[in-house]
Structure formats: structure tokens, C-alpha cells
Design brief:
The protein is α/β, with parallel strands linked by helices and 282 residues long. The protein has nine helices and eight strands. The chain has a five-stranded parallel beta sheet with strand order 3-2-1-4-5, sandwiched between helices. The protein has a three-stranded antiparallel beta sheet with strand order 6-7-8.
């Protein structure tokens, strides 16, 4: 007697995905879109340069806004909808292009007070309340089943994961690995600010992270020694100025007494006038 064989049909992607961006899209963003398309019936990409996450002396005014080119990338990647709101749509009653929490007419803000307090949060005090607020607004407007964030902005990823958990959003946050250039530089919209010489020197961030990883692989568990080694690598690039080089808990981003597997090396440095960040999970 022949056994009946049931044909198993591949499961169709279902649900709605959101890929939040500030535009100036590159291959890293495209990777987020492609990953989202694999598991979702439709993908929405938001493009909005959010004024509340920029400090008074940061690059809000000059941040690139190539909307037409961005839309072509979204079309190429099979995105269903591009959501490109105005300031007034995101912050009703506010004045456009104003920066800083106290300068907007909006009175409701979202803050994550645990993961956000160190590193970027310490150096950019108004940053994460702007990130949390705008992402919460996007979640309420789009109502996605899943949202996709790059690991390159590691602290932002952890802040959003905590916000979603604490506010009981029925949304899965999906982390997508950092996309790098062939030479290792993490893709970033701000890379376009770099001169050719600065672009070459910016590789020092990736070299510093690899130095920490290599020392960890050889048995080094003292966070201070790993941090010092990263700082020494950054110092070899004349155009680079270190902001911070830290080893932190991979979930809480608290400082470590002894480094363990799953902790993360995080680095921020100015290359010329451009501030870049990168990270590597040990």
C-alpha cells in the first residue's frame, strides 16, 4: 500500500512591517526592507527627519533629505507604502524645524529612563526622548505587527525594545545586523559628510572594535584594558577624536566589572567634524 504524501505549501508572509528611517537611504536601510519583506505581507517605510532627537548644535539643518532618490530605493525593494509626514503631522501645533524638547508646542513625551541614561543618552541629553516619542507616534499611526531596526544603532535598538515591553505595544522588534562597506566601515547616512581622507581614517572605528574582539578572544576580561586598547587604536588616526569607547552589558548597557560573552563594545568618535558610532557584540 502506498503511503499518502501530503504536499506542504510554503507559508505565505503575513502581517504589516514598519521600517522607521530618517531618509538618506543606503544599503543598510535596504537590508532592513528586504528582511522585513521576507516575513510580512506588506512593508511601510517611514521617512522623517525628526527634529526632537537633534541637539541645538547638531546637524538637523544640513541632514540630507533626498526624498525622490529614497523613494526609488523603496520602490526597488518592493515597499508597499512610503510614509513621509510633515512636522505638523507628527507634532500638531508645533513650529516646523524647531529643535529641542522645550521648543515644541507638543506637551506629551515618551522617555525610556534605564537603557537610555548612559553613552548616547549622557552625551546627547535630548536625543532619546525624541527617538522614543517619534517611534511611539509612528507605531500608533502605522500599527505594524513588526518593526525593524539596525544593530548599528545598538543603544537605540535596546531603548526601543524596552519601550515596547514597558508600554505593552503588541509589536515585535526585529534586530538586523549592521551592514558594512567592503572595508568594514559601518554604513551610515552621515558617511557622506566625510572627505576622501576622512573616509579612509574613519576605518579606525572598525579597527578599534576588532582590537577589542581579538583581545577578548585571547582571554582578556578586564573592561578597562579593552577600552584602553580601543582608545589607543582611535588615537592612531590624526583626524579622529574619541568620544567614548566602552564595554557594556549587551541588554542593560550597564558598565561591566568583568567582560562576558554577549557583552557589547561600543564606540563613538569624531572624524573631522562628523560624529560616527559603531559597535560589536563580543
Amino acid at each position: 500500500m502506498n503511503a499518502a504524501v501530503a504536499a506542504i505549501k510554503p507559508r505565505k508572509p503575513s502581517g504589516l512591517a514598519l521600517v522607521p528611517t530618517m531618509g538618506a537611504l543606503h544599503e543598510g536601510h535596504a537590508a532592513l526592507m528586504r528582511t522585513a519583506r521576507e516575513s510580512n505581507a506588506a512593508v511601510v517605510v517611514s521617512i522623517y527627519v525628526n527634529p526632537t532627537q537633534f541637539g541645538p548644535n547638531e546637524d538637523f539643518a544640513k541632514y540630507p533629505r533626498p526624498l525622490e532618490a529614497d523613494c526609488r530605493i523603496c520602490e526597488r525593494e518592493g515597499v508597499a507604502v512610503v510614509f513621509a509626514p510633515t512636522d505638523n503631522e507628527m507634532y500638531p501645533g508645533s513650529q516646523p524645524r524647531l529643535r529641542g524638547r522645550g521648543q515644541l508646542a507638543a506637551s506629551t513625551w515618551v522617555e525610556e529612563l534605564q537603557v537610555a541614561k548612559r553613552l548616547e543618552g549622557e552625551r546627547r541629553p535630548s536625543h532619546f526622548h525624541g527617538v522614543c516619542t517619534v517611534v511611539a507616534k509612528l507605531f500608533n499611526i502605522i500599527q505594524p505587527d513588526r518593526a525593524y531596526f539596525g544593530q548599528k544603532d545598538y543603544q537605540q535598538l535596546k531603548v526601543i525594545q524596552r519601550m515596547v515591553r514597558d508600554l505593552c505595544y503588541p509589536i515585535e522588534i526585529v534586530s538586523v545586523p549592521t551592514v558594512r562597506e567592503a572595508d568594514g566601515l559601518a554604513m551610515s547616512s552621515r558617511n557622506r559628510y566625510l572627505s576622501p581622507d576622512e573616509r579612509a581614517q574613519a576605518l579606525v572605528l572598525w579597527k578599534a572594535l576588532n582590537c577589542a574582539r581579538d583581545l577578548f578572544a585571547k582571554g582578556e576580561r578586564d573592561p578597562q584594558r579593552l577600552q584602553t586598547a580601543m582608545a589607543q587604536v582611535i588615537a592612531t588616526a590624526p583626524a579622529a577624536r574619541l568620544d567614548y569607547a566602552e564595554i557594556a552589558d549587551g541588554e542593560t548597557l550597564e558598565q561591566r566589572q568583568k567582560v562576558k560573552r554577549g557583552d557589547v563594545a561600543l564606540i563613538a568618535a569624531f572624524v573631522g567634524a562628523t560624529r560616527l558610532i559603531d559597535n560589536l557584540i563580543l
